[in-house]
Amino acid sequence: MISQQKKTKICIITASLGIGGAERSSAILSVMLTDKGYDVTIISELDEVVYKYKGEVVILDKMVNLKNDLLRRIAKLRHTYKIIKNKSFDYIIDTRSRQNWLKQIFVNKTIYNKALTIAMVHNYKLSLYFPSNRSLARYLYKDTYKLVGVSEAAVKHFEDKYGFDQGLCIYNAFDEKLYEKLSKEQVVLPKGKYILAYGRIVDEHKDFSFLIRTYAKSKLPLLGIKLYIIGDGVDKEKIINLVESYGIVKHVVFMNFTSNPFPYVKNALFTTLTSNFEGFPMVIVESLAMGTPVVSVDFKSGPSEIIVTGENGILTPWKKENDYIDALNKMVEDDDFYEKCKEGTVSSVSKFKIENIIPQWQAILPPIK
After folding, report:
1. Could you tell me if 95 and 12 are in contact, meaning their C-beta atoms sit under 8 angstroms apart?
2. Residues linked to residue 297 through DSSP beta bridges, in sequence order
3. Cβ atoms 59, 83 nearer than 8 A
């Protein structure tokens, strides 16, 4: 436990505390660090607070009341600068995507310049965090204390492309007790057997179209096994129309986003994931923690570091529809195979529990003398 007389001060910079894997992981990180005695402040750009957090929270949207977009962004930067200057943080953990690299150079050099900065990389898609030019990327992060990727593949990807030597992998953690508590919340569960997909309905990212095509061609609709989709997003209407075009409206049920999907996850036959790219998909960890197997395509990055076919689900080649259809069918036709997968779920994610992840953070966040 860190001395209560002089706590190490940490600032977590996040887009929000609601709706998104990176946002949920930021909230969990605040809980982990606060519980270990760190003095945590969260600076959230947006007024979206859904997930449980700990520490002081500053919501920039509440501090800025300007209609002009440029002036609003400048005002937010000014407030961020004042907070960081007044608090004299020892460490800053930036969990946001950083596509505007000119803005980020200014932030790194002017706002973050005196604190040890940890830049999180939550996605395999490097354009969300780095300029394409190698020299610019190295200049942007040359003074960054650590570049923390949430999967081994993501870290290798940015190290290979840009030649960074301060990268390391720290997986997103999950709160076992919280998940179990949330899974017991009273909700109206689906009647009969169902499989589940949940997340933002953005097809370029999550590729729900692939899921609809493969589900429609599988044996599951004929067997009365429904597909539940929980989430909202810009492509929801597109996916609804695709369901109609395949004539499977009565087999696919859409539900709006919920901050607590766990009762539905726990009671599903299995969950599905068909993304084109991720960083470290918490959908997989959440599902396995609930004792529910996962059928996922092998996109970059994360699934291959969690799923072992036949032990906790099925991992199929990326974009191979026939393989995914076969996987869906196998999970409902081969009872022995399914039960073996189900038995291996919970134990397969034990390394991602808070108590196993927090020591890795403590190792890079020693008290400043």
Report:
1. yes
2. 316
3. no
Provide the token pair at 62.
Answer: 């509440």
**Domain range list for the chain:** 9-173+353-364, 176-351
The residue-averaged pLDDT of 216-229 equals 98
- Interhelix angle 21-35/282-289, rounded to 10 degrees, is 60
Which CATH architecture fits 9-173+353-364? Answer: 3-Layer(aba) Sandwich (3.40)
pLDDT tens digits for range 152-210: 999 999 999 999 999 999 999 998 998 999 999 999 999 999 999 999 999 999 999 99
- Residue 134's CB is within 10 A of a number of other CB atoms, namely 12
What contacts 5, CB < 8 A, 6 or more positions away?
none
Q: Which two structure tokens, joined as six digits, stand for 54? A: 């700990």
Strand 194-198: give its sheet, edge to edge: 252-255, 226-230, 194-198, 271-273, 294-297, 313-316
The first and second tokens of residue 187, run together, are 């909700």
Does residue 254 or residue 21 have the better pLDDT?
A: 254
Block residue for tokens 């493969």: 214
* pLDDT given for residue 22 in this prediction: 83
Instruction: Supply the DSSP symbol for 53.
Output: -
- 261 near 240, Cβ under 8 Å? no
The DSSP call for residue 228 is E
